[in-house]
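Protocol step 6 of 9: fold each sequence in the batch and record its structure tokens directly after the sequence line. For illustration, a two-sequence batch is reproduced in full.

Sequence one:
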Amino acid sequence: MYRLKTFIMLGILLIGFNQLALSQRVDLETYLNQLQHNSSHIKQSKNNIEQAEQDTKMAKAALLPSAGIESSYRRDMNRIYMYISEVESGGLIPNNFPMNFYNNISANAVVQQSIYNPVALANHKLAKLSKEYTELSHFELEDELKRQGTILFFQALYVKESIAVAQQNTDLALQQWNQLQDLFEEGYVSEFQTKQAEIYYKQTLPLLIETEKMYKTLLSELQLLAGESPHNNFDIEGSLKEIAPADNHIDSTLDENKTIKLLNKQIAINKQQIQERKAAYLPQLKASVGYQFDAYDDDFKFDNINNLGFAQLTLRIPIASGGFNRAQKQKSLLSLKASQIEKDHKKNELLKELYNSELNLNLASEKIKTEMEVITLSKKELEISEEKIKLGLVTNLELKEIRNALLQSELNLINAYLDYKIAQTNIQKIAEKK
């Protein structure tokens, strides 16, 4: 009867975990590929790149020739006259002459080309720098999402491996309970000891249940980060214990760090904005070539025609803007200074984070070695205690404490592997190591 209840309870607990075993499994590389292709943040960033490309084309258009044709029809409802005095006409001719026709058709075509336009040149360079900044932002976003996805994936692996450890602890407690039941039936142990073993077994179940719930929650978070709706047909595979050796040759100059590159590009944009403000003080020269056609008539015959071809140079010299250009230039200088300060501050932050990550990596490495030694000793102690309990030399409580010590050591080992993985991921992101 005891064993029947045991198998029923254990079967209920394993239903959820066995369902995960039937799910589609993805490793870290596959998940990161899904993240890059499906993330809404990545899609929005790509859209920003396309907009920046169009901004560059718009800025370039100001340097290229422009052409246009304009035509119109005009109907005058009455005459207008030019008048002369009777003294000048001597009274021999009328003193008013009509100045218009009732119908007027006109058309003109103009081609314009900027010969010297420093503002347009500066805007074009600024648009190109802005596009480069947007592209760098996209790459930096990809790296950051990769870092976040990698750490979340490792955390899910940590919980998954914790489930295996918790399941192992439950199995050991169940084994101890079954063993004591057999000894009770043979009269070697008391009913109290058997009940005590049953309670110790049931005490292991909440940890297993909570860990499984946490694992499902992390799987949902992984799917949401990758731009997918949470579903049950999703699982991950891999091992935290598969670790790469630490890189002892890390470039602390952070020259390849994308965040620093992004701030350098922002400084370049600020400098170009200053050049754009200076260009507002310079003259502009524009050339135009055109043709104008006009036809006039009262009866739609349009026999009265004017044709005019022309070429024109236009020189614009700015004199004063009421202090606007000067204020814009000063504002750009302040923005440049702010960007330089932000770069220095961010670099110090990254160096500090890099230093802390290196310390965490070394600490986790030492902790892994220590916990592996502790686990080896705990397993030997557990084997000896399982034999002693048959002889009555070890109590249930003592065996439980030994088993819990092994459980804690195994969880500590998994946690050390997680710390190692997270530290290594952060170092790779900061130092741009592959």
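Sequence two, same batch, same settings:
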Amino acid sequence: MNEPLLPPSEYRTEASWDGDGVLCDLAGNVLLRFRSTERRSWPLGAAPPFTVLDMNGREVLTFSCRKRIPRGVFEITRSGRRVGEIRQLTWLFTRYAVKFDDGERLTFRFPHFKVHFGGVAGSGAAVQIRMWTHRSWLARVEHGVDGPRTAALVAFFHRERLRHG
């Protein structure tokens, strides 16, 4: 399921203020596209579902908000089947726990007023993210967690960070 996106383990995400965008390797080759599936305002309410697609238009993962207040819970699905969830651990949108149904777990930290943040898997493999601009991120993913699921998580967190900045 989380087969590697080879050869790169370094990615760049480019997103609009709406959260739509692409995930590329550092040479600029588009690997994944992402978009919100609905257009509506969502300042404090639940955000619309967020879908990451491969280059053939097939769904990699979809993230849907199940609960926003007091802390967000997002369901991760693939082809309509639940594959995991994301739980917001702090009120300030700085820590998230990701748990996939196959047992893979990751924890992401997004300190305020910083440009470097990222996550770590239960195996110890790291995901390092650098905010180049609000709409452009660079990510380095270690091979223990490298793959479409982790790339989709980076895209999802990019959209969340655009919302809560």
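Proceed to step 7 once all outputs are recorded. Observation for sequence two: The chain is about 10% helix and 45% strand.
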